[in-house]
Amino acid sequence: MEQTVSQAEKHLGLLCSVLAGYTRKTAGLRDKGDQLVGQLYELAQCEDPELQLGLKNMSEDLAMVQDYRQAQVDRLESRVVAPLKAYGDIIKNKRAELKKFGADRNREMKEIQKLEKIRLKNPADRQSIVSFKYCVSPLRGVHIQLCSKVYIPGQNF
Q: Please, one GO biological process term (predicted)?
């Protein structure tokens, strides 16, 4: 499970980074297109009426293309990059759950080892063994709950 979370963190981080770079480059291309539209419009102001009309039409068409690029950048940021960023929080939560699960599992194992030591030292002392079992059994319930809480969603992850 830890390996799955680590792999997801690594690959989703790289994917998010690449997509963010793609979005930035698309936004940069949009900015260059906007500069080109401005230059064409300025050039159109200096030319004769026929060329002026053609350059203005061309700059308006290019401005529409840049509007589509702006929509593309907005969609990339809202529908692709933002949901991928949300996985960062999910991965952090899974790591915290795994850490808690590991600590609880280790605590339970230590308690079971103590119980075994008591059994080996004095097998006739049933009262201390039974009382210790009652101390360990709640830990076992917590361990089972954590197993189902961590592993079942982990498989879906």
A: cilium assembly
